[in-house]
Amino acid sequence: MLTLVPTDLWAYTRSDGHSVAGIPIDFLLFAMTLIGVALFHNRVLHVALSGLTVILLYNFLVTGFKHGSGMGGLVAHFGHEWVILTNLFCLLVGFALLADQFERSHVPQLIPKVLSRGWVGNFVLLILVFILSGFLDNIAAAIIGGTVAMSIFNKRVHIGYVAAIVAASNAGGSGSVVGDTTTTMMWIAGVNPLDVLHAYIAAVVALVVFGIPASVQQAKHAEIVSADSATLHVDKARLAIVFIILVSAIVTNVTVNLRFNHLADHFPFIGVAVWVALIATSFWRAPDWKLIPGTAAGSLFLLALVTCASLMPVEKLPLASWESALVLGFVSAIFDNIPLTALAIKQGGYDWGMLAYTVGFGGSMIWFGSSAGVAISNIVHEAKSVGAWLKNGWHVVLGYVVGFAVLLAVYGWQPTPIGNSASTAAPTASHSGTR
């Protein structure tokens, strides 16, 4: 649920700076930062902040920023980005506290009663995450799935299954205009909600392809552990608090986008709504506020990478085609999908359902490729390793490719012009939803 880039993002023509073998130094610095994150996964925040500092200095001293040069350009850049960053920070930390409320409601411990043993029950949990993400924020869906998994597997969750939970949350929102940032952007820009619905063809196929191997991995790693239900009592107050927070986020998301879209650039409505609900309900049942420092550190890591991505000179995309849509999914694993989608909308000529699948699901291939992945890694710390994620979550990459191939074979490449609707805003206007 992020507020997106403004309509004049690329209004300023910055200096080309320098390049190596035709590659702008900005991208090389960003690539070095990502390599550092992959190699030093125990120091990811330090690496990300160091990389951001170097990129900011390079923009400040050499190329200038998208909105101007020098201090004025820097201030203008963050003047446009602060809503995105604030929303993301509020959601990541806020939903971590929501997860604490959900866990202390004792509902996760009771879920084994309705799940089958073995890989089938594990797969059912992924299906539930997939469904939840169709109408909830994908961070919330991933955190709920991760919280349940940590409970029912007695905190022994396989990295491959963690990757699958993230993938299920991202895939589940790909065909719904309220399930993901990218689809919400398209909706507000004038894309008919039915024109993204066919993303579910690929998403469902991908869920089967990555979900079954991940469920088998988890079954071999740790079985579902049933708690003594006779000693457990659902804390209905905490469960109600979870419901209130989620409803607050959903209602604010829809209301701002449909009624007050012109104000969405100027205030982090979604993040504030979550925190208003958290604080208001804390007098009923307080969350564990001690979780904030640790979660905030993990959240700052993603904010640093998002800021780095916002500084890259990405002014145009290749011509719209199914090949470019496929590649954008892989790019989305390391590059923020918000500006990518904004550019695609501005360019036009895309099959919006195919694009929604690729940029929405693509971030699942690496743990920091989506906010859902960063959020769940704050719960399962072992997930903060690119090598472990790729090695154990290989099925997510396979699922992405197979899902795309089936969508292309069954539905084909059907680009749709952006229509004129009452809710249409400028292509790169602000929206809610999370990557």
From TrEMBL:
<feature type="transmembrane region" description="Helical">
    <location>
        <begin position="119"/>
        <end position="145"/>
    </location>
</feature>
<feature type="transmembrane region" description="Helical">
    <location>
        <begin position="82"/>
        <end position="99"/>
    </location>
</feature>
<protein>
    <recommendedName>
        <fullName>Citrate transporter</fullName>
    </recommendedName>
</protein>
<feature type="transmembrane region" description="Helical">
    <location>
        <begin position="291"/>
        <end position="312"/>
    </location>
</feature>
<feature type="transmembrane region" description="Helical">
    <location>
        <begin position="44"/>
        <end position="61"/>
    </location>
</feature>
<feature type="transmembrane region" description="Helical">
    <location>
        <begin position="20"/>
        <end position="38"/>
    </location>
</feature>
<feature type="transmembrane region" description="Helical">
    <location>
        <begin position="324"/>
        <end position="345"/>
    </location>
</feature>
<feature type="transmembrane region" description="Helical">
    <location>
        <begin position="393"/>
        <end position="413"/>
    </location>
</feature>
<keyword id="KW-0812">Transmembrane</keyword>
<feature type="transmembrane region" description="Helical">
    <location>
        <begin position="237"/>
        <end position="260"/>
    </location>
</feature>
<dbReference type="InterPro" id="IPR045016">
    <property type="entry name" value="NhaD-like"/>
</dbReference>
<feature type="transmembrane region" description="Helical">
    <location>
        <begin position="157"/>
        <end position="177"/>
    </location>
</feature>
<feature type="transmembrane region" description="Helical">
    <location>
        <begin position="197"/>
        <end position="216"/>
    </location>
</feature>
<feature type="transmembrane region" description="Helical">
    <location>
        <begin position="266"/>
        <end position="284"/>
    </location>
</feature>
<feature type="transmembrane region" description="Helical">
    <location>
        <begin position="357"/>
        <end position="381"/>
    </location>
</feature>
<keyword id="KW-0472">Membrane</keyword>
<keyword id="KW-1133">Transmembrane helix</keyword>
